[in-house]
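Renewal narrative, Specific Aim 1. Our central claim is that a sequence can be written position by position from structural information alone. The example that follows is taken directly from our test logs and has not been curated for this report. It begins with the structure tokens describing the chain, in the order in which they were read.
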């Protein structure tokens, strides 16, 4: 499953058009979308809206056909320079097998989101094009510091980002270089064996999760190990594992202890507590971009090359 050096969509500039749609779960339009549009317009962007933003079908933002049509239309429309999913939830993988990336290959554009949208980002990665694991309109204002939203803006507009975080006692020191891949742990496991499956050998893998039991996280890590996704990793970045459904003592190990157990036979550097995931601190990460990870007792640094 060799993927060539990924192509990077052109940086946005003032006056460009971006599309908002809901790739997965339904959205509270009045609460979420007008404030998000105001932010994007403040950045100098024009916004077009998908039908999915106002559509409901069971838990989804409209039927699969509505969400698929939105996504395909925005992929094909050369005037749209980025597609941002309003939220995650569940449902994006239901539509991926019917997507035609022909026009997208000819005119790459940014696709951004996280959580359930991990499946979409993995699909984009398999097309050989970078995408953005980043905060979404439903969560634009969760981070009171504004760092998460600003990191999305910087990457969309082609500005340099270098991330430095507070070293953790559980970190495993080392230096890694490789392509950055990953996202939500459940979804990354979910796409294994599908056309969106990602070869992790030589890559820097980042993982985050929310609303899971400890045993479920262990099961996902077992699957990563059995599927060979940990073998040959260049480095591992562990983000937030938030709002867990039970306590460490219920399973017998904490999240860090679970991950440590399954990576103990490897020597790649490991970072814990990186600000990515379902918490206020959710820094935007360019999936598919070459990166350098430095982990030391006095420094944790992620930079892009």
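The sequence written for that structure reads:
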């Amino acid at each position: 499953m060799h993927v060539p050096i990924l192509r990077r969509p052109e940086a946005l500039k003032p006056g460009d058009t971006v599309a908002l749609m809901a790739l997965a779960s339904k959205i509270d339009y009045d609460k979420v979308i007008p404030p998000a549009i105001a932010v994007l317009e403040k950045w100098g962007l024009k916004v077009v809206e998908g039908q999915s933003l106002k559509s409901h079908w069971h838990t989804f933002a409209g039927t699969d056909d509505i969400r698929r049509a939105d996504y395909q239309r925005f992929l094909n429309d050369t005037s749209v320079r980025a597609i941002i999913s309003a939220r995650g939830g569940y449902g994006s993988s239901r539509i991926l097998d019917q997507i035609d990336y022909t026009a997208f290959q000819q005119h790459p554009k940014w696709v951004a989101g996280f959580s359930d949208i991990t499946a979409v980002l993995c699909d984009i990665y398999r097309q050989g094009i970078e995408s953005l694991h980043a905060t979404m309109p439903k969560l634009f204002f969760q981070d009171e510091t504004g760092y998460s939203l600003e990191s999305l803006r910087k990457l969309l507009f082609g500005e340099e980002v270098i991330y430095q975080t507070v070293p953790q006692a559980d970190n495993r020191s080392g230096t890694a270089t490789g392509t950055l891949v990953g996202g939500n742990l459940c979804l990354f496991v979910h796409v294994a064996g599908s056309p969106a499956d990602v070869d992790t050998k030589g890559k820097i893998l980042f993982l985050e999760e929310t609303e899971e039991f400890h045993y479920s996280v262990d099961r996902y890590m077992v699957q990563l190990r059995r599927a060979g996704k940990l073998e040959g990793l260049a480095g591992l970045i562990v983000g937030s594992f938030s709002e867990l459904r039970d306590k460490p003592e219920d399973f017998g190990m904490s999240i860090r202890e679970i991950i440590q157990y399954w990576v103990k036979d490897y020597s790649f550097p490991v970072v814990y507590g990186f600000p990515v995931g379902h918490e206020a601190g959710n820094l935007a990460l360019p999936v598919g971009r070459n990166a350098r990870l430095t982990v030391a007792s006095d420094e944790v640094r992620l930079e892009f090359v």
